[in-house]
Amino acid sequence: MNPLRKRINLIFGVLCIPIAFQFFLGFLLGILTVLRKYGIFLSDYTLSFVIPQTVYPLLNALLALTVLLFLPRQRGVKGMFQPVKKDFFPWFGFFLGAVTVGNFANNFLMTLFERLTGIGLPAVFSEYDPSTVGQGVLFFFVIAVLPAVSEELLFRGLGGGGLAEFHPAGAVALSAFAFGLMHATVQQIPFAVFMGLVFGLIYVRTGNLLYPILLHFANNAWACAITFLQIAFGEEVTGIVYLIGSTVFFVAGIVSFRWLKKNGRLTLKEAPARVDGKTVLQSTLTSVGFWGFTALHLLLTVLNLMS
Questions:
Q1: N- or C-end of the chain: fewer Cβ atoms within 10 A?
Q2: Tens-digit pLDDT profile for residues 195-253
Q3: What is the rounded CA–CA span in Å between residue 192 and residue 220?
Q4: To the nearest whole percent, how much of the chain has pLDDT over 70?
């Protein structure tokens, strides 16, 4: 078998496991909900939000670390984490600009989708907005901290790192596609694909997984901060803060983009156009693992849209 297609099958096959676990976890939570009637106490917030958003990313991290131990040329995670260097700051500025552009484009697409379909799309996790300090701490932990580590290990470490030895640009594109589709909600997929490209580029160019982890955390922490502002001060104050922040982020992005481009940091190294006579696209489209992953997550996206 084509070695690139074999690796794509392995990685996308592994990425199918978390969604199967999601269905099992839903069944388990249903049992726990029933058991509440018999004296086992768990709050609705814990059952519906904290447990799923904690157990799922922990599984992702464990899964990624386990598979990475067995990938050829990538034994364990040694070398994936390095100290933060001075080049982190231009990459951070580049990320800030990308977040601003990505949010603007995603909001435009969602508005267009709602007008064309007549389907109203609620804010993701809006029904789980914290109402106490304790819930706020849990909300921040499961939204900002856990996903940054687990998703970067899974999609950049396993996905991007596992394919970069064959084709760096293809690794960035495929890991971004998987990252976007994994979110399985219309509201999140376009933005997640775009940010997956940004995180993937940064990881492949620097070889340091700590960079996308920190940037992913910064993105989610900013989203949490906006949520907390809305709860505490309302839409008007939050809108002003968001506008000021987005303006600063965009300017930082322009400055950083120019510096990175000038220093040749935005280009990926040359890769063979074909592996065993097949392009990356051909290897992907003939991968059973890729189509299995895609079908499962598209089904989940449709189910989320209908609910």
A1: C
A2: 999 999 999 999 899 999 999 999 999 999 999 999 999 999 999 999 999 999 999 99
A3: 12
A4: 91
pLDDT mean over 172-201? 95
Is-contact 71 63, C-beta < 8 A? no
In the prediction, which pLDDT does 75 show? 46
Q: How far is CA 205 from the centre of its chain?
A: 18
Residues 7 and 276: beta-carbon distance below 8 Å: no
- Tallying the residues shown for the chain, one arrives at 307
Select from 177, 146, 154 the least CA-distant residue to 68. 154
Among 244, 154, 156, 241, which Cα is nearest to 195's? Answer: 156
The residue to which tokens 């589709």 are assigned? 181
Q: Rounded CA gap, 106 and 226, in Å?
A: 17
Please tell me the predicted confidence (pLDDT) of residue 115: 92
Task: For residue 262, count other CB atoms closer than 10 A to its CB.
Answer: 9
What count of other Cβ atoms lies within 10 Å of the Cβ of residue 241? 15
Q: Which residue has the tokens 């392009």?
A: 279
Return the DSSP state at 99. H
Token pair 């388990």 is found at 28
- Mean pLDDT of all residues in the chain? 87
* Mean pLDDT, residues 14-32: 76
Buried b (16+ CB within 10 A) or exposed e, 118-141: eeeeeeebeebebeeeebbebbbe
* 87 SS3 class: coil
Residue 74's pLDDT band (cuts 50, 70, 90): low
Question: What is the DSSP secondary-structure string of 259-288?
Answer: HHHHTT-SPPPP--S-BTTB-HHHHHHT-H
CA-derived radius of gyration, the chain: 20
